[in-house]
Amino acid sequence: LQMESRMRRALELEEFELYFQPIVHTDSGNLCSVEALLRWNNPSMGMVMPDRFIPLAEETGLIIPIGEWVLEEACKAAVSWKETAGRNIGISVNVSPRQFRDPGFTEAVMRALSASGLEADQLELEITERLILDNSIETAEILRQLDRSGIRLSVDDFGTGYSALSYLKSYPFDTLKIDKSFIQDVMKEPEDASLVRAIINMAHSLGLSVIAEGVEEEPQTHFLKQEGCDFCQGYFYSRPLPAKDFENWLKTNQ
Ligand code: G
Ligand code: G
Ligand code: MN
Ligand code: NA
């Protein structure tokens, strides 16, 4: 209860902060886009990680105003990097189920784009497999609407959702993000290597690009390169960074 009342005030007290993690081209290691990851700096609880507060934010509905704040800040940040980088840098934003199903969601996305001036194709929304598996007409309609407006869509945590793969053919996704649990042991467990290889091939034959998440060691990058994985994200390249640190990373790593 205490956490809930603290969370209710967190937006106005400006306790939320976005961290940014680079997503790079597997072949060159060059920056492609950036995932925005939410943090909550609370004076009495310290830095709270999303796994600890997103579930409560979902339950209470606070995820809706918080999610709008994330969208706005993320889009603004991406626009602000253009000058430093000398080109467009896409931004990926995580969307949770309650936020996605809120009737005002697509409007909130459009507002964030127009307020920041970010082009629609520079924004990617990460949707977890679990959300997609509800198979509802509403989900399909929202995805199509977002797709029509030029926003990119990715399946987050791919492989963890007991997925019925059929949704990949009927929904307008652009990218699969292979869950880090498959990447973690890819050099030790032949089964994980086989799964990753199969996911990459399947995604490509469906016209989707692939991001490997949780890349921590160099040998994994060689494996992923060899298997034709398009993009990588993980501690090997960079941890999620606060805005200032990310801007410094950008100056030296583009
Ligand atoms: O760094 P990490 O601990 O940031 O993130 C943990 C989990 O929290 C991830 O599964 C991620 O999808 C989720 N998450 C991070 N930021 C956000 C956000 O802004 N909105 C939502 N809905 N989930 C987020
Ligand atoms: O949205 P998603 O569930 O994919 O969130 C990504 C999560 O993975 C975040 O919590 C982020 O901090 C974390 N993460 C990013 N790179 C690495 C990595 O190389 N190793 C591990 N263990 N976690 C990572
Ligand atoms: Mn994600
Ligand atoms: Na993930």
TrEMBL record:
GO CC terms: membrane
Q: Which UniProt keywords apply?
A: c-di-GMP, Coiled coil, Membrane, Transmembrane, Transmembrane helix
What domain of life does the native source organism fall in? Bacteria
All copies of the EAL domain together span 1-254
Q: Which GO terms describe its molecular function?
A: cyclic-guanylate-specific phosphodiesterase activity
The alphabetized list of GO BP terms reads: cellular response to nitric oxide; signal transduction
- Identify this protein by name: cyclic-guanylate-specific phosphodiesterase
Query: Species name for this entry?
Result: Marinobacter salinus
Q: Which residues of the full protein are shown?
A: 548 to 801 of 805
